[in-house]
Specification:
The protein is α+β, with helices and mostly antiparallel strands and 175 residues long. It is 24% helix and 42% strand.
Length: 175
């Protein structure tokens, strides 16, 4: 099964859909239907290894914290547009949690490279005019909405013709 570890942000789903509606339409967009930060992508995992990961993740300790939506951005570059995302601030507690998860799972999975805390709004293909696309995205103002982070989850991702379908396998609460 295809797994990843995430913080869920669907409490702001209506706001993220509003932001998606502001995105330029001069490209093929695959809009995200659920909103989260992927803390660690595990990939294809056998059930016994998933069970071991759950047991390890139960021991990851963290306190609840707040983050705020920040700005909108593009990955990987403005010249090679693949993702439109919303950033968060402050990032330090998210980075700390991500590092704890990475370290705890080190016996089972490779470390995450170049982690960047972000919520994906859309995957992008074939912008007709890259500069116009980027300029329009940069004009979108993101409200400084607050989100309480009280848990993270192990998520199963099943790919379908209509996009990924997610289901929580385990929930890990703050202490």
């Amino acid at each position: 099964m295809r797994l990843f570890i995430a913080i869920d942000f669907n409490e702001l789903k209506d706001y993220f859909v509003y932001l998606q509606d502001l995105l330029p339409r001069n490209a093929k967009l695959s809009l995200t239907r659920t909103f989260h930060i992927t803390l660690k992508f595990l990939g294809e995992v056998q059930p016994d290894k998933a069970e071991k990961a759950v047991e390890i993740l139960k021991n990851v300790k963290f306190g609840p914290f707040s983050v705020f939506l920040d700005s909108i951005g593009i990955f990987p570059t403005e010249n090679y547009i693949r993702v439109v995302w919303v950033g968060l601030k402050p990032e330090d507690r998210i980075l700390e949690l991500q590092n704890k998860i990475d370290e705890a799972l080190k016996p089972l999975f490779r470390k995450e490279k170049d982690f960047k805390a972000h919520i994906t709004l859309a995957r992008v293909k074939y912008p007709e005019d890259k500069k116009a696309f980027v300029d329009q995205v940069k004009k979108i103002k993101v409200e400084n909405k607050r989100i309480e982070v009280k848990d993270f989850r192990l998520v199963k991702s099943a790919l379908s013709p209509k996009g990924a379908v997610y289901g929580d396998l385990a929930l890990f609460n703050s202490q």
